[in-house]
Fold:
Amino acid sequence: MALTYRVDALMKPDDFSVIFVAVGYPSENAGRDASTVFLTSRGRLTKIFTSPYQMRGEGWKMAVTLYRKTFYIDEVRDSEDSNSWMVYWGYKFEQYVCADQPNGKPNIEGHINTSEAFYTVVESNINSFKLLFSGEVDCMEECPKYPTAPGYYVEMKTSLKPNGEDFFYRHKMLKWWAQSFLVGLSRIFAGYRNTSGIVHKTEMFEVQSIPELCQKNIQNSWEPQVCMNFLCEFLSFVQKVVTQDNPSVVYLFTFDPSQRTISVSIQEDAEHSIIPSWYIEANQTETVSV
Structure:
């Protein structure tokens, strides 16, 4: 299959903004547990989760605001990804292998609208931390191995054929696993392409089997527990540092993988604000329960 590039600009929705819609207005959250919670997106969570194994030159900057006992975590991006054609290849691959209806056939000639997406919202407990986060969903299995969400969702990926390359198992498979593991997806369907965007082979992965697969293919492979420990330590660090309960105050956490350090600064300006004004206005007269 040829993942031909036929789009001038990509308009991908921001998965962090989805969480505000999911949480909604105060009246829509009556009855929810009011304990402290972290609100974010799968993409942000994945970057933090895989930090112990990030390469030099990667790293991240996360903006955190505490508002009514809830920690909101967003990513600060210095620049957008310039490889938009590779992003488009991912959308095109999904078009080749997915149908709009059960028992339907893929419409490979249809227009690709990159501004539309389906999302799942996950409420999870990791050790003593409660998280609520959004994640984009590519598709669901027609005859699922697991009968309920999120188990029957399938993640779609495209990649250069690994050929036993260390980078594929040490870094790419780690990110694939983390993205699906955090949301609770059970399977990943991958298409192996060449540098021209031609897919020659596909493969299905069981998410729970990926750590063992990587350990068989590379020496000193990554360990899931190391990722989990880092995430918990970071969330604990956020709880200790972020003390001002104010939607206008933003704490910037910067991770430098070359130094293995996280630095913190405080901003009180609109440029770094991460909570939308409509959400704050809706919560001024009522108490949010998340």
Q: What stands out?
A: The radius of gyration is 20 Å.
